[in-house]
Automatic annotation (TrEMBL):
InterPro entries: AB_hydrolase (IPR050471), AB_hydrolase_1 (IPR000073), AB_hydrolase_fold (IPR029058)
Domain of life of the native organism: Bacteria
PANTHER family per the UniProt record, alphabetical: AB HYDROLASE-1 DOMAIN-CONTAINING PROTEIN, HYDROLASE, ALPHA/BETA FOLD FAMILY PROTEIN
Protein name stated in the entry: Pimeloyl-ACP methyl ester carboxylesterase
Natural source organism: Geodermatophilus ruber
Pfam families found in the cross-reference section: Abhydrolase_1
Stretches assigned to the AB hydrolase-1 domain: 23-138
Single GO MF descriptor: catalytic activity
Amino acid sequence: MGRHVRVANLEVWTEQVGAGPDVLLVGGAGDTVESWQFQLDGLADRYRLTALDNRGTGRTAMPDGPVTVAVMADDAAGVLDALGVGAAHVAGFSGGSIVAQELAVRRPDLVRSLVLQSTWALPDVYLRSWLRFVQWLVAVAPSERAFLEGFFLDIYTARAHEDGTVAAFVEEMLAFPHKQTAEDLQRYLDAFLDDGTPDRPARIAVPALVLAGGVDSTARPVLGRAVAEAIPGAQFEAWPTECHQPFQEVPGRWNTRVDAFWQQVEAGATPRPREAPDRPAEPAGRG
């Protein structure tokens, strides 16, 4: 069961499951702890996993004041401190991966390793244009359903649209009682548009695994590769048939790969950079 955790003046919604080495899961735009359900279900036999709703998302309110990457990293650090978690393996996707990077720089005592899915160092012209597109799309879409269907074109593979997985995601989100407002999503995205820390990856001093989707038109592999090249010793893998969120579309593969990385770190081994061949997709679905 989830619960709110007090972090400074904010009540942050968290969910913690499992037993073992600690893992912190940090989601992206509009995504709540439910976005990590395949990981909360599939890895709890090996790890104690903590997920959170970022400020302005789900059951965590959006307080007054600026929303920045640093502020969200402090929120994540505050959750770990409040729960009495020491250093954790930290995984983040999309905007959550940037928060994870910042957390590793601001509070290295709390981060044992990083898994960065669909990440970047600084949004380039293309990604900035896409972030602004989402900001106005959420404001002008004729309905919530229309926004989700349009937004998900860039988030999930064509196969997930064709096999009904995306349609199921849309229905789940329409039924979700703790919806993010258009204004809160826009403020969240502003944090990344305003972010100006291109040297952040080079300041990271923990083992890192950087994953990218080969058909992701937003956080493209070239951006993830640049992050991996800047982090000393980081591993980089581009999965050619995957998009922005393979941890939902191919969760078995994603969990297996991330578990292997964490086990290397736990064993004190130094994960070695490598490129991995793609594999056939498994059935999609978020559960």
